TrEMBL record:
Domain of life assignment: Bacteria
UniProt-listed GO biological process terms: aminoglycoside antibiotic catabolic process
Lineage: Bacteria, Bacillati, Actinomycetota, Actinomycetes, Micrococcales
InterPro entries reported for this sequence: Acetyltransf_17, Acetyltransferase_Eis, Acyl_CoA_acyltransferase, Eis_dom, NAcTrfase_Eis, SCP2_sterol-bd_dom_sf
Protein name: GNAT family N-acetyltransferase
Active site location: Y158, F447
Organism name: Arthrobacter wenxiniae
Amino acid sequence: MSTERDPSTRNPRPFPYELRTFPMRLVDGKVPDEVAKWTQAVALGFYGNAPTAEDIAKFAVMEEVDGRMSTGAYLTDAPGHAGAWGPEYPVATYAYHRKNLNVGGGTLLPVHQITAVTVRPSHRRRGILRAMISSDLAQAKAAGIPMAALTASEAVIYGRFGFGVATHVCQVEVASRGGIGFHNPAAAARGTVEVADPLTVRDLHNGIFARVHAATFGSIGRHDMYRLIASGQGNYASLEPSRNVRAALHYDAAGAVDGYVSYQPDESATPPTVKIVDLLAAGEGAYLALWNYLGSLDLIERVTWDMAPEADPLEWAMAAKRDYKRTGTEDHLWLRILDAPAALAARSYAADGRITIHIGDPLGHASGIFSIEVAHGTATVTRCREDGSVAPELSMGVSELSSAYLGAVTARILQAAGRLREEMPGAAARFDALFALPVAAHSLTNF
Ligand SMILES: CC(=O)SCCNC(=O)CCNC(=O)[C@H](O)C(C)(C)COP(=O)(O)OP(=O)(O)OC[C@H]1O[C@@H](n2cnc3c(N)ncnc32)[C@H](O)[C@@H]1OP(=O)(O)O
C-alpha cells in the first residue's frame, strides 16, 4: 500500500521553472546550444568530467540512435548572478529513451527508460524532480507505453512515484588460482575461446546483445553508448578508451561468435584480481566456456563481477562451490506499471486461476480494481466497476505490484512486510500461485 500523501493536499510551492523537452541530436551537423548546455548540466550532477564540444557531439550522435528525449528545468525569472551559470543552463535534467523489456514467453514489452536525473544543489527540494517525473510519466502513459523503468542512485526516492525494485544483481568473487575446477569439464569446454581486440566487442555487441536480450527474462534494452562501455572504449564520464580492458570471444561449433567477455585488472585489489566489464553469452556453452577462460588467466587469483544473476549456473558448475562467493546483492532494475491491464496481460503465467486486486497509485495511472483471469498461461485482465459491486481480494500499491511483476517478491512477503493487504483469506497465496515464475529475472544493463 502506498504511504504517499496525495499531491493535491500539499501546500502549493512557488515553482519559478519552465520544463522544456527536446530531442538529443545534431542539427545540420552541429550540436544545438540547448543540447550542449543540458549535457554540461548532467555532467555536473553526476560529478563527471566537463565534456568537450567534441564529446557532446559524439554523445548526441549516439543519443539520436536511441531516440533520446531530454527535459531541462529552466529558471523563468533568473536574477542574473554575475559569473554564475545563466538561465540558458538547466537547473535540473531528465531524459528518457524507449526500448523494451523481456517479460517472458518471448514477449518484449515496450518500456520507457528514465535516466540522467539531476537537480542542481542550489535548487534541490523545491519539487523539480516531482514536476519532471509526474509530467513525463503522464506523457508516457498517454503515448500508450505500459511500463516505465530506471536504475536508482538512491533507494528512497522513486517508490513515491510508483516504482518498485523488480530485479537484483549480485556482486561475486570467484577464486581462480590454478584455474576453475568444474563438475563436468566437458560442459565448460564447448566451442572455442580466443583473445580479440576490444574494438571487435564494440562492433559485435549489438548483435550478441540482441540474442541475449531475447533469451533472458528480465533483460532491458541497451542504449547505443553500451557498445563503448562493454568494450572499454568510453562512457558518459569519459570517452577516453581504457587501455587495460581486454576481451575474449566465444565461438560456437560452427565457428560463429556467440559470446564475449571484457575484463580489466582491479589494481586496488589483493590477491591479483580481474573484474568483468561485461559478459554476454548467447550460445549454449558460451557462459561456462568464458568463465573457464577467465579461470585460465595466469597470475590472477580472483575474478569479480558486479552483474551476476541471482541464480548463477557457474556456482553449481564449479567443483568447489564455496570458491564462488556472493559478496553483495543489490536492487537493480526498478519498474513502474503505467497501464495495468496491458502490463499484466503481457507476461506469462505458470498456473491458471483468477484473482481480483485493487491497485493504489498516487499518480493515478494504474489505479483501480482489476480481475486477472489466467487460462493456458495467458491472462485476460479486466477493469472492474468501483461502485461496490466487485470486492477485491487483495489491495496493494503500484510500487508493490511492479516489484511482484517479474517475481522479485511474493505477495506473502509483501504482506508480512506490511505493504499489502489481504481482503479475503488466502488471497495472497492464490496471487503467488498465479504469479510464480520458474526463473529469476536478470537485467544485465545499467542506464
Ligand atoms: C534514474 C536516475 O537518473 S537515478 C540518479 C538520480 N540523481 C541523483 O542522485 C543526482 C543527485 N541528486 C539530485 O539531483 C536530486 O537530489 C534528486 C534528483 C535526487 C531529487 O531532486 P529534487 O528536485 O530535490 O526532488 P523534489 O524536490 O522534487 O522531491 C521529490 C520528493 O522526493 C523526496 N526526495 C528527493 N530526494 C530525496 C533523497 N535523496 N532522499 C529522500 N527523499 C528524497 C523529496 O522529499 C520529495 O518528497 P515529497 O514530494 O513526497 O515531499
